[in-house]
Structures are given as C-alpha cells and as structure tokens.
Queue: 4 jobs
Job 1
Amino acid sequence: MRKMIAVFGGTFDPVHFGHLRVALELKEQLALDRLHLLPCHHPPHRAAPETESAHRLAMVKLAVAGDAALWVDDRELKQQGPSYTVKTLESLREEIGKDSALCLAMGADAFLAIDSWHRWQEILDLAHIVVMTRPGWQMPGADLTASGTSSVASDLLKTHGVANVEQLRQQAAGNILPMEVTALEISATQIRRLIATGHSARFLLPDAVLQYIRQHKLYTPVDC
Ligand code: ATP
C-alpha cells in the first residue's frame, strides 16, 4: 500500500488538547504512516509578543512524546522568518519521494482563502489537501454555483474533491478530502490569558506542557 504522510501546522503557542485531538484523528482516520506537527513562525501581523520558537518546539515534543507516528517537524523554525507552505511541501516531497502520498491538513477557513496563498496553484501538484471541518459544515456558495456565484475553493473542491480516504490514497497528490474532526473549545489565546491572569489552565493541555510553562515562566507578565 502507498505510504501516506500528513502535515499539520500551527503556532502551537502553546500546543493544547484541541491540536492534539485533531492530530490523533488525522492519524487514525487517514491511517497515516506519519503525521508531522509543524510549528510555524508567528504571522507578522500578530499582536502578542512572540514566544521563543525553542519553547514552542519543546512543548510540542513533550506533548507527543511516546507516540511514534506523531513527528515534530522543525523545518520551518530553522529558517528565518515566516516560510511559505508551498516551499515546505517541496522540501517534504523531496524527502519522501514521488510515490508516497503527502497531505496538507488545514482548517475550512484557511481552505476558503486558498487563493491568497503564495503559489497556491502548485500546492495540489505537491500534496493532497485535507480540509478539516466541523460536523454539518457545508462549502459556502456550493449551492449558488448555478447562478454563477463561485469561489476558487469551491471550484477546486468540484474538480479535485474525493469522498473517502481510499480515493485519496490512489494518488500521491492532487485530491481534496473534507474530513470531520472534533473541534474542542480550546484556544492557545485562552490558555495564555488564563496563565497571565493567575488562573489554572489544567485539563486544557497536557500536564507535562503545563509543567514546562511553569518552569520557564512563560505567558506570565515579566513584572508580576
Ligand atoms: P491562537 O489562540 O494563539 O490563535 P490556536 O489555539 O488557534 O492559537 P494555532 O496554533 O493557531 O492554535 O492552530 C493551529 C491549527 O490548529 C489551526 O489549523 C487551527 O484551526 C487548529 N486548531 C486550533 N485550535 C483548535 C481546536 N480547539 N480544535 C481543533 N483545531 C484547532
């Protein structure tokens, strides 16, 4: 059977059970050989001060320790400044060869804005896209195509969409699979806020990560 690898990126500042649950569901539902958790640089427009990459990386490593199929991939952090997804996929593709399937996992919101991504037309030449959706999600505008209203994302879904994992695996790249995942009501913003205001973030993220945060005094105002 063709090998299949997926990549799931985020700032992971810090990594939490929302991310980890999704990672596990991707791994199981897609029967992946490997899932790469890819900490990214903070987007330039972000208001909050950046947590050092080394800390974000260390926390992801602690969170997935013991699961051999969940890999922590530091290739974007090794580079200065934000990297383009298409470049990361090129680098992964070079590493895994042309026959293995490569999947890029992204949220439905990100997928709807795909045509704003750098060299987006090349993404499907390099990888499949797995669009992570919430239960009941429907492609906006999907029912409006008859009236001529459309978007790049819904057009892509029409031309490249597949209905199941078996179809996805038939090629090394080029398909789009919408996949329902559990979206826990947890965000890194909420965790940073709780810690900054002296509240507990326990049960929102792994204890080992929380311990790391305490040890390194992350997310706590410097003068408190
Ligand atoms: P922040 O609150 O700092 O914006 P975040 O918690 O949203 O961070 P990111 O690192 O920005 O986390 O997210 C990386 C990826 O994980 C994104 O694709 C995002 O859609 C997904 N994600 C984040 N939180 C959840 C969650 N609770 N459940 C499912 N997916 C999530």
Job 2
Amino acid sequence: MERNKNIAKLREGYLFPEINRRKRKFLENNPNAKIISLGIGNTTEPLKKHITKALVEASTDLGTVEGYSGYGDEQGLTALRDRIAEKLYGGIVSGEEVFTSDGAKCDIGRLQVMFGNDVSVAVQDPSYPVYVDGSVIIGATGEFDDSKKQFGKMTYLPCTPENGFFPDLERCKKTDVIYFCSPNNPTGAVSTKKQLKELIDCARDNKSIIVYDAAYAEYITDKKLPKTIFEIEGARDVALEVNSFSKPLGFTGVRLGWTVVPNELTYDGGEKVIDDWNRVTCTIFNGASNIVQKAALSALDDAGLDEMRKTVGFYMENAAIIRKTLKDVGVEVYGGDNAPYIWARFPGRKSWDVFEEILETANVVTTPGSGFGPAGEGFLRFSSFGHRKDIIEACERLEKNLG
Ligand code: PL4
C-alpha cells in the first residue's frame, strides 16, 4: 500500500526525539561529557509516600478475588471523575463531564480524530508541537510553506514579548478549532481572566471550539490567574479542557490525564460534543489503568493534595534558580513564575545554533524555540524539571559560559 501522504509532510523528526538524537550524537563524539538536561519537560523526583502507598495497595488488590477488576468504564472510574470535578474544579464542572485517560497528549490525538480533517485550525505560535503535528497527520493543515516555515492551511497566532504573549484574535476569526495552552508551553506565560474572556467571546462570535490545554494549571500560584478556562463566564459554551497529572504529581511515566467536555458545548448543527467524545472514547480507547485511577483518588485527598503542592513547589524553586541565573548574565527571560518553563531570548541568533553552542560549551541540553513554531525562532526553552544538584550545576555552567 502507499504511505499516508500526510506523514510525509511532517517536518524533520518530532521535536523531542530530535533533541535526544542530537544529545546522543554529541555524546558519541564526547563520551566523557556530563550532560545535564533542561530540555524535555520530564519529571525527575520520586513519587511521594502517600501516592506510592496508594499505587502499591491498588496493585495488591488486583491479586485478590475481591479486589480484582478487568476493563473499567472507558470514561473512567466514577469516583475519580467526581473527585477531579470537586477538588480540582471546585464543582464548576460535573464528574460526568470529566473523562479520565492515559494522558493529555493522547487525548489531544483522539480529539483530532474526533474533529476530523475537514476543519480549520489555529494554534498559538510558539506552541506544544502535538497540536500542529497531530493535525498534519490527520490531514488538516495543507502543505508546508518553507518560506514562512509554517503549514498553509493552519492559522498561527504569534505570542511574543511584544504582545504580552497573548495573540491578536482577529487572526483566528475563521477557525473551527483553536488550541490554547495556559500556563503556556513553551513561553511560561499565563493568560489573565480578561484575556480568556476575549478568547471565549471570539470563539462564541465565530462558532469556534477552544481546546484548552491546562496541563500546567497546578503551577499557577498567583491567585488572580485562572487555573481553568471554566472559571470564565461563557466558557462552557465554547471550550473543552485537557489536563494531566503528569507534571503536578510526577505521573509522566505512570500516565493519567483527563478531558472535561461541558454538556453545553455543541457543534453548529446543535449536536453535543460530549456525545461524540463519549463515542470516540468508547471506540478507540479502553480506559485508563485501574491501578493508577484508584491511586489517583488518594492524590486528591488532603494528604495527596499536600504532596502535590510540595512537588510543584520543588520544581518552581528550580525555575526561580534558572530564571535568576539567566537574568544575572543578561539574558532576556520570560515565564518561570507560574509555570515550570523559562523562555529565553537570544536576539539575532537561530535557536538551534544557540542550542548547539550551549550543548558544546556548558554540556546543557535545552529546547530550541523554533521547534515550537516560527515565532519561537531566536528563543530557547529551559525546563525546571531536574534534581536540585543538577539544576545548580547547570546554572553554574551557564553562568560561566553565557556570562
Ligand atoms: C515530551 C502543554 C513536555 N514525549 O503527559 P501528558 O500526555 O499528560 O501531557 C503531555 C503534555 C500535554 N500538554 C502540554 C505539554 O507540555 C505536555 C508535555 N510536554 C514538554 O517538554 O513539552 C513533554 C514532551 C513528550 C511529548 O511529546 O509530550
């Protein structure tokens, strides 16, 4: 058979494996180099006691007649759906609107399958590559325009220091699906309530659906900033939200996320999106792990929530260290105060060139901003996920080599 033509349209490799490829190549030539990664946003700290105990207990239960369970509901464990709605959304969404899953990234892929390829799509530029690359795979983006470094049928919404990382919404007036991430990966910017209201009004006026990615919501410490789009009036009519335990709990390898689809969200013809999401979920997904879902219930009791705050607090201290180091050596930095990413500008330079230079001189891996979209050119993303000693050493090396 012939290869799916859309796969051939994907640019180079997927960003994160490409970073690992370059790191491996560097190590082949410099086998003694002690590389520290501030690149991929991958959690490093061990799970905390309360959640580990819950995972062990849930596993042990499976070895008993009374505790064994096979396939569960595709939509997720009812008790967990209810607890997410109560503890993380303060009851502004209902448990029936929460669908648990094996992660936010996987849900984004399934949402793309649900929307199909006959939709127009807008993304923040820069943005998490899955929104664009997943849309490419299903054939919703048109051809890649090399001169503009973007796909022809896709609307890119530049988010730069100059516009306070909030896009000009005039540009997405004719789009069906708008991917919007806050706290943002990679810029670390968090949209205000007022900005989200503008986005919601724009979506309502243009009959767009917002896919709101809140994977870093727990990193918001400023009480004035919204943790979920559903805090904003009108959101239930135009938005759905993907979220994840990966970053607040260290579940990157354990895998557990969820998507909230409000009952009011409909297509132009009045059909309910939640019904389609239910249908897609039941058809191509078999439910999140029963062990992990049972354990996640404990993550949302008082002791679990306290552990979650500590995990987030640890990585945010790392973020403060990285941010200060870069600032002190004169680099223009953004993010890192309500998000685990620091977005650093290197004027007049190509992102991959600065990536290579820092890899060679400081043996520190970063993520090149251009990998997140054309507006990311000239920037690097620094991730705060790392052991404290590695963060401190990486910062000492950066100070020496960038200073
Ligand atoms: C590397 C905005 C990281 N191989 O773990 P999940 O699937 O629940 O959540 C993934 C996710 C969803 N939404 C946003 C994200 O930033 C992420 C994770 N991104 C990064 O460094 O940007 C991990 C990337 C991983 C990947 O491709 O996702």
Job 3
Amino acid sequence: MIDRDLAARLVVAAHRRVRDHREELSRLDSVAGDGDHGVNMATALAEAARRAEQGDHSTPADVMRAAGSAFHETVGGAAGALFGSFFGALAGQLSRSEEPDARQLVAGLEKGLARVARVGKSEPGHKTMIDALAPAVRAARESLDRGDDLEFVMATAARAARRGARATAAMRPSAGRARFAPDHSLGTEDPGANTVALVLESWAEQLSSEVRV
Ligand code: ADP
Ligand code: MG
C-alpha cells in the first residue's frame, strides 16, 4: 500500500538521488544540449521534496500532484514540462483509489508514459526520456502480471530503465534540443533517460529499505 507518507519519502528519495548526480546529468546535456539538465531536475525535485515534506497533503496523489506542479513552476526547459506531466498523470491515476497499491502505481506509470509521449510528441528511439520510461513501464506491467509485489515490480522497472538509458548512447536524437546536433551525442547517453533511471532506482531502493525495517 502506498500511503501519503510513503509517497513523500519516494519524492524525497528521488530528490537526493538526482541531486547527487546533478553534475553528471548536466555534463551529459552539455554534449548535444545546453548543459542545464542536472540543475533543472535537482531544482525541481528540491521544490517537490520541500512540498512533500510540508505535510499539508492528505493523499499520495496530492503529494505526486504537488511534485508535478513543482516541475512546471520551477523549470523552464523541455524536461520540466515533461516530468511535470509525468507526475501529474501519475497523480491522476493514484487519486482514483483510496489506498493505491502496486496495481495503481503501474497504471499510473502507464498514464505518465502516455502523457509524456503525447506532450513531447516523441516515440521510442528518439533518444529521450521515453527510451528509459517505455521499457521500465513495460517491465513493471509484466512483473505485476506475474504476481510480483510492489518492491519487486519497482526493482524490475528500475533495471529496465537503466538498460534503456544505456541503450540511448547508440541512438541519434530526433527530439528535443539535441536533435539539432544529431551526431554530437553519438556515444553519449540521453540525460533525461538517465534521470528516469535515477528516479526509478531511488524508488526501488526506498521500497526495499522499507520492507526490511
Ligand atoms: P532543455 O532541453 O529544454 O534544456 P533539459 O536539458 O532539462 O531541457 O532536458 C533535456 C531532456 O529532455 C532530454 O535529455 C530528453 O530526455 C528530454 N526531452 C526533450 N525533448 C523531449 C521530447 N520532445 N520528448 C521527450 N523527451 C524530451
Ligand atoms: Mg538542457
């Protein structure tokens, strides 16, 4: 079960992880983009974590919705709007249930992926965050359908996201700023795909640490 406090801990975990990789994310973005991705994501997630910890949200959906708003309000870049849309769609799905569990979370990830693809007009293979998110969501769905629990589902999703992010190194970008210099980024992973992997890894680790206590 995902309650309000767990949702807040997931947002805080995501912030810590992305903050710790801020320089690396900006370095990836500097190869074919403008080098601001790490700062963009760390800034938005710092605000998302601040809002989550404020405690004036009563449901997990409220926490995720506030995180989405933090992305929209603090970051001007493409990824701000796209991650904001992702968290917003996830919140929308979680709000349909009083006590969301792994099923609602996976459905929320699917809604998030669909929203990002629609807003960004991007598909797998365009060398974007979609190339980590799409395989992660597919793996999460398969894991859930096999009967795995929340912790296992998220660990499976995180591994698929990381594999997806690694695979972007071999792609030429056809979306976002990087598409203007398609050859520059050959051999370098997409920054947004890395952020997706970091966020899902932080969620998987948070969930596994909770189960053991
Ligand atoms: P900006 O490109 O505006 O500087 P960021 O540097 O924060 O924004 O984010 C760049 C990341 O955003 C890319 O690595 C990519 O993953 C993602 N991105 C950009 N445009 C799109 C798009 N149209 N669809 C999906 N993801 C995108
Ligand atoms: Mg950038």
Job 4
Amino acid sequence: MPRKCSRCGSANAEVSLPYAKLSLCRDCFLEYYIHRVKRTVEKYRMFRKGEAVGVAVSGGKDSAALLHSLRRAFLSQKIVALHVNLGIPEYSDRCQEEAERLAESVGVDIYILDLKREENVSLSDFKRTIYKKKICSVCGTIKRHSFEEIAGRAGVKVLATGHNMDDILSFMLSSLFTKQWAQLVRLKPVLPPLFSWMTRKVKPLIKISGRENLLYCLYAGVPFTEIECPYSKGAKTKERLKALEILSMNNPNIKYQALDAFLEISKILEEKIKLPKATPCVKCGFPSRDGICAYCKRMAYVKEILSNG
Ligand code: SF4
Ligand code: ZN
C-alpha cells in the first residue's frame, strides 16, 4: 500500500522531507514550500508590504522556483524579474529565453542586461586572460555589479536571489577553510546595502534545498532550463556539494543542522567582524577598496587584452 500524505491524508505521498518528518503529496508539498518561503521572508524581515522586489532570475530551477513562489506567497507585492545575459555561447541565450518565458508565465515585467551589448565584452572573453581558471569568480563579480545596475533601472531597492541551502553551505565551507570571515558574514539571509542607493540583498530560499526547488518547479509546471553552464565542470562548489551529499547519506538532517548552526554563528561573527570599509569607485560609484571597483578593473583589463588582439 502506498504511503498517504501526512498533511491531507488522502493522496499518495510523493515527497519525503525527513527534516520535517513529513511525507507529502504534490499539492501539499507545493503549499508547504510556499508557506516556508513566506515564513522565511517574514522571519528575517526581507521586505515590507509596498516595497518593490527585484528577483534575479538565471533561467535555472532555483531562481525560477523563487520567482514563482514569491508571486504566489505575496500576491499584492510589486515584483519584477531581473536577468543578466553573460554572453556564454550556447548557454546564455537559452537562459534568457527561459527567464523571459518564466516572467511571462508568472505575469511580471522582466529587465535584461546584455553584457555583450553594453560592454562589448562577454564572460567567454575572460577565457583568454589570466582569469581562465577563475571564471566563476569573475562571473560573480560581473553578476553582482550587473544585477545592482538593472535593479536601479527597474527602480527596486530589494534584490532577492535564488541561493539555496546547498549553495550557502558550500560557500560557508569554502569561506571557513580559507578563513574569509567577511565573506562568511555576507552569507546571512539579509545583507543591508553598502551605500544608500544600493539594494538590500535577500535570500528567501536559504532554508530550502536544491532538490526541493527542483520538485517545486516540476510539480508547479514552472519553466526553467536544465542545461548547465559549460564553465561549471570541475567547479569547486560542485565538489563541496558532493561531500555534503555523502554526509547526508548517514544523517538526512545534517544539512539543516549545519545551516541552523551557521545562522547562529553568523550573528556572533557579525558583531566581532568588521567588514572592510568601502569607498565609491571613481568610474561607476560602486563599492571599492581603493577607488576602482573589481568590476571596472576586470573590464578595463579584458578590453585591453581584446584590443591587442
Ligand atoms: Fe558563472 Fe561559473 Fe555559474 Fe557559469 S558556472 S554561470 S561561469 S558562476
Ligand atoms: Zn567601478
């Protein structure tokens, strides 16, 4: 006899959530998921009623689940989708198509920043530079800058990202091992703006696993692309995620326990650690340590390489 849903008791259970001691049917899982996203937003006061929220959408499952569930959880909130096209061949255009399809299906406006069109540079150009082995790190710098830029164009002061529990734990491990305390503090659920014109960054999926996001998209019929970025192969993040999966085999709750522990420690760390002071970049006004931000430095550098052929 198939097991019945622990919530409604009538439909067959399809999803097992050991951390919550629940086995749910599709409909109850979707309801439970939306409720958890709503509770996380409210618990950490990620945004207030009446504030416009920009959701960074990549085309992948996590940000697709985020946009769709936020729309359902906060029916009267102004929400827009934000997308950055990085110009990665055979990947970025597919991502943009999916992001546009998603925004349309959810009924929100989408703002797109096309890196190639705006800077005449694509992420792939960095493959010809000293960054060829650190492409994800350059990508992170570009995305942070570009999402802030389009958030400004869209007139939103809250930027929601689809970082899930696995991402946070993976970054947490890497920041711990490399003693990058400031980076560790930045993983918290709500990151206030460094300058008043910037956005508050919020992570409504911080307590939800990648697997739950995938199931949400599949069960709710949310459009997303499963194609992987060609530069993701061998990424350290993937290796760390694998290690976490192995640990979870013996204890399915371990990731949830680790996240809880991290959230407690990050409060203590925040009091102890002083984030480095930022000064506005002379070129673009974004935060920098020495007057030119990481984005402007990398753009100037790659343009120089490109102009030399
Ligand atoms: Fe960017 Fe790396 Fe992700 Fe590709 S895998 S989108 S390069 S961060
Ligand atoms: Zn700059």
